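tool_call: predict_structure(chain=1)
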Amino acid sequence: MSQELQVGVVGLGAVGKTLVARLDEGIFGVRLSGVSVRDPDATIESLLHLKRRVPVVRASELAAIADVIIECAPAHLMGEIAEPVLRAGKTLIVLSCGGLLERMDLVDLAREHGGQIIVPTGALLGLDAVTAAAEGTIHSVRMTTRKPVKGLIGAPFLIENGININDITEPTKIFSGNARDAAKGFPANLNVVVALALAGIGPDRTQLEIWADPSVTRNTHVIEVNSDAASFSMSIQNIPTGNPRTGRITAQSVLAVLRKLRSPLRVGT
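tool_result:
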């Protein structure tokens, strides 16, 4: 506990850049030790302002220089990023947790080598309550998501089903189903429902509606949980980053995880 944890970041999109900047400013007990990006030449300028220079390496090389690796990359890269980290017995913080549903073998790999996968709360709230309820019996979990139209355009589900939302003028329901199908159809949008599913009753029983709403400017999630210990509902409105698919609170959620790893006082499950 007296030694700093070395942290690596994979991906320098809106979230990755925020994390790198905040780690450079300083967080008790952790230190930025490296980053990995697909195109170093395109992102090197964003690293020049750092007080402490860090190496830019391949994702597979981060495990050699970091104790904790934060994945901020597209979901289809999950295996490529996760395997070397978990084989080295290190900790992987996953943002594209939708990719985990197709690679649950990574949990076995972590168990085998003493690694750990952490899914932060991200753009949700109340996962502490959901995980606590899961220690008993959860009867149902339902989530309704409303997003600005531009945050949903280009989703595979819309393209495959010929759904055009570019010119809608009123709230339109574009999906109703379970978390597993939502993760496939909206891989850049619905990591939140996967985190909810993993905390609770799984991706096949967690139900979701998605609405494209031209009247909203924030990503809004409403969750309803019914269990033998408690029934509760939660609502959150997230302010988007420069990327309309991602809320500002996502990066802050990762920072909260990092602080807990070395904090002498930890609040929350």
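agent: The beta strands are 5-10, 30-36, 68-71, 91-94, 116-118, 138-147, 172-178, 206-212, 219-227, 231-238. Proceeding to next step.
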